[in-house]
Write a structure and sequence with these properties.
Elements (H helix, E strand, L loop, with lengths): L1 E8 L3 H12 L4 E4 L14 E3 H6 L9 E5 L1 E5 L5 E5 L7 E4 L1 H15 L2 E3 L3 E8 L2 E8 L2 E12 L6 H5 L4 H8 L7 H11 L3 H6 L5 H51 L4 H28 L2 E3 L6 E2 L3 H6 L2 E2 L2 E5 L6 E7 L3
Parallel strand pairs: 1-2, 1-11, 2-8
Antiparallel strand pairs: 3-7, 4-7, 5-6, 9-10, 10-11, 12-13, 12-16, 14-15, 15-16
Helix pairs in contact: 1-3, 8-9
Length: 339
């Protein structure tokens, strides 16, 4: 087993920079990349602005600069365009030759003291009392790496994400603030990252005096996310149920006509159409039950009934005749999405 202070997965610019500064800080660092050649195949993000290099204390090198950027011309679909120069916006940058740039960054990490392992694929990551244990497939065979700190810098393909069943699309939505992690994943993520749920949702450590305020904001955001998800789910089910019912009716009509040619074939098609209607209806009712609440028309209380009650209740649309568990009165209870 290879033991180290810090292991970095992914030798892209972010991973190499993390490895470099960890090594400069005195840590024993291992930088792992699954590719046989760092920088290939080429990824996106060749265009960068020079202030970023200054902030990271990286001296621009002509060997990995394909083109300098002094301005840009923007073209709209209707044919209009306008040009922005460094006089208009005091920002300049570079078009990088990523194949060279990534190697340069990895070499910087190596010069700082990091050990680089290429053609090494991390297949699993687990916590232990000392930090993390990584299982890796390398050119030398299967090896294990133990580290106090693990930095997953391999983007949406992160082994942490795969371990938790998180897709690259989900990670992209989190990064862009379009949604939050699924509730079923939050505790696992928090355990791996050694943070609490509120810190996961806010993306930063929380000072105790701000804890209550931020917790309330996160709860409101979670409720809004759930309400939107329930509305989308119910709309999707309505569309699918309508299409399925139309298909079933078509099958039953076809079966009726086919009985004139082959009675057995016609009956089988009619049975298939009937089964499709029942299965679709049951599935739609189950989804309707799980999405949101029902409101009693008498006491105005909102609640979640049993699946059996929803399935057997007379209804029109998503409004169902049921008995309220609070006031005990029967009535047509309408579907709502908030408590």
């Amino acid at each position: 087993m290879l033991k180290t202070d810090v292991v970095v997965i992914g030798a892209g610019p972010a991973g190499s920079m993390a490895a470099k500064h960890a090594a400069l800080g005195g840590a024993d660092v291992v930088l792992i990349d699954k590719k046989s050649e760092i920088g290939t195949p080429k990824r996106c993000a060749e265009g960068v602005y020079d202030e970023g290099f200054k902030w990271l204390n990286i001296e621009p090198d002509e060997r990995w600069i394909a083109q300098r950027i002094y301005g840009a011309t923007l073209h709209s679909p209707d044919g209009n365009s306008f040009t922005v120069t460094s006089e208009d916006v005091p920002v300049q940058g570079f078009i990088l030759e990523r194949k060279v740039f990534d190697k340069h960054m990895a070499m910087d990490a190596a010069r700082a003291g990091a050990k680089i392992m290429i053609k090494t694929l991390v297949t699993d990551i687990k916590r232990n009392e000392n930090g993390f244990i990584l299982s890796c497939d390398s050119i030398e065979g299967t090896i294990e790496v133990e580290a106090k700190i693990a930095i997953c810098a391999d983007g949406p393909e992160s082994i942490m994400a795969k371990k938790l069943g998180i897709t690259d699309r989900a990670v992209s939505k989190w990064e862009n603030g379009k949604s939050i992690p699924d509730a079923s994943l939050m505790l696992d993520l928090c355990q791996l990252l050694e943070i609490n749920v509120n810190e996961l949702l806010t993306g930063e450590q929380i000072v105790m005096k701000d804890y209550k305020k931020i917790a309330e904001q996160n709860l409101i955001e979670l409720r809004n996310q759930k309400e939107k998800a329930d509305r989308r789910l119910l709309t999707t089910v309505k569309i699918l149920a309508t299409l399925s019912c139309i298909s079933a009716v078509v099958l039953i009509l076809m079966g009726t006509l086919l009985t004139k040619i082959s009675q057995f074939l016609g009956i089988m098609v009619v049975i298939l159409g009937t089964i499709l209607i029942f299965v679709t209806a049951i599935y739609a009712v189950m989804i309707e039950h799980d999405a949101g609440y029902y409101e009693c028309p008498n006491c105005k209380m909102r609640y979640i009934p049993t699946r059996k009650a929803v399935l057997l209740a007379p209804h029109y649309g998503t409004t169902r005749k049921m008995e309220c568990p609070y006031c005990g009165k029967k009535g047509y209870h309408r579907k709502v999405f908030t408590k």
